[in-house]
Design a protein that fits this description.
α1 packs parallel to α3, α1 packs antiparallel against α4 and α2 packs antiparallel against α3. By secondary structure, this protein is mostly helical. The protein has four helices and no strands. It is elongated, with a radius of gyration of 18 Å.
Length: 140
Amino acid sequence: MAPPSPTPLAPRLLKALIVSLIAVAASHVILSDTLYMFFAGQAAATLGAGPGYSSDQAFTVALMNTALLMPLVLWVGMRVTGERRAGPMILAGTVAWISAAGHGIDAIDDVPGALLPWRSLVLVVAVTALTSAIRRRPGR
């Protein structure tokens, strides 16, 4: 049985763009929601009643959850759309997301519900979607 023919570039890029948008949105929601827990922990500690975990733990959980969610959503999204060999896209998207979140954390660290800078979000989506064009040949 012959292997399935690869998807043409334009449909693959469109699928990758949609999946990248969903992955960035989901990762941003997780990051901002868990950072809200961080703010609640800080406020509770300031008032003298802790929620049972430290605010440092909530901050670490925020960063870890968003770093783990991005590759998972990218992989599942590309598999659902019928695409294979999305390794470079997943790697580039995860690295781009972690660097964008790392550079923009100060923008959302001060105000609950704030967004990362739009430029960095657009850059992450663009880099991730464009990287989907990189495909290894089968058997290599």
